[in-house]
From TrEMBL:
Family matches, as Pfam families: Acetyltransf_1 (PF00583)
Domain (N-acetyltransferase) ranges: 105-279
Xref: CDD domains: NAT_SF
Protein name (database record): N-acetyltransferase domain-containing protein
Lineage: Eukaryota, Viridiplantae, Streptophyta, Embryophyta, Tracheophyta
Length: 282
């Protein structure tokens, strides 16, 4: 299901300590609460304030609007400024999704989750090749975190909503990047100049088939609304029916396939391009 796709170099906010998010101090996180929330005012935004409030997945769906079922997105007037509560973008299915905290341990954990998901075993010296691959994934992640604006790239991570000592800290990872590749833009309306590209969706092997990927995709939806992008895009291997079903259930539709001459004859599996349109608040 996993697929690691290269994207343009990008970065995330510089965090001072684990109790800082988006450069704003927050209260220490507690696992027994669904979300620890933080407010941030955005400059130069003429929209109404957006407030993200995580809702427990146990709440009755009949009592929630569509936005509420996808993390309780609410619109509030705040003098024309954008107000966000965004420590956790999603609290769903027993998982919480947020942006990566840029410290050594968490960055290495995220790189390990992706490396384990995308490493192709080899007959000889597999451990050695895996170490090289993991180092390559970590170097790429560090480069993106260091060299991209915080509103152009985000590494999102999923963790258990409850404090379970038997569970690892991070169980899922994905990258979200603002791109303007013409191969994708040709499938979007003429007024669309950029879109969010999702890549590197990875879930720890022992935690697969537990809707972690679905929670990560919902977090990407929330990020697209916060950043003001109407379209999201991703690629999946054409024969990976499991991954394509997850993406289709999340609202993505196939719009094109890799040309045969770019895949089969050079040994690369053909992929499909899938696009989703979000409803931005007005």
């Amino acid at each position: 299901m996993a697929h690691l796709l290269a994207s343009n170099p990008t970065t995330s906010d510089k965090l001072i300590c684990p109790n800082f998010t988006y450069g704003v101090r927050t209260e220490p996180r507690t696992r027994n609460a669904c979300c620890s929330r933080v407010r941030r005012k955005s400059r130069g935004c003429g929209r109404k304030g957006l407030v993200l409030q995580c809702c427990s997945s146990s709440t009755s769906s009949s009592q929630l609007s569509y936005a509420d079922q996808n993390v309780g997105l609410q619109i509030e007037s705040d003098g024309g400024k954008l107000e966000q509560q965004v420590e956790y973008l999603v609290c769903e299915y027993g998982w919480m999704v947020r942006r990566l905290i840029e410290n050594k341990d968490e960055t290495r954990q995220a790189a390990q989750v992706q490396a384990e998901a995308f490493h192709i075993p080899v007959a000889l010296f597999n451990d050695l090749f895996f170490q090289f691959f993991q180092a390559e994934v970590l170097a790429g992640l560090l480069y993106k975190l260091k060299n991209s604006p915080p509103n152009r790239y985000a590494c999102l991570v999923a963790e258990p909503a409850k404090n379970d000592l038997d569970s690892p800290h991070l169980v899922g990872v994905t990258d979200v990047t603002v791109l303007r590749d013409q191969d994708v833009l040709q499938h979007l309306p003429a007024e669309a100049e950029e879109y969010l590209y999702i890549s590197g969706i990875a879930v720890s092997k022992t935690f697969r088939r537990r809707k972690i990927a679905t929670a990560l995709l919902k977090a990407c939806d929330m990020l697209s609304i916060l950043w003001g992008f109407e379209f999201l895009a991703l690629r999946a291997y054409e024969d990976d029916l499991g991954a394509r079903k997850v993406y289709a259930n999340a609202g993505y539709q196939v719009v094109s396939r890799d040309p045969p001459w770019t895949s089969n004859w050079i040994g690369r599996k053909p992929r499909v391009l899938m696009i989703k349109r979000t409803s931005l608040p007005k």
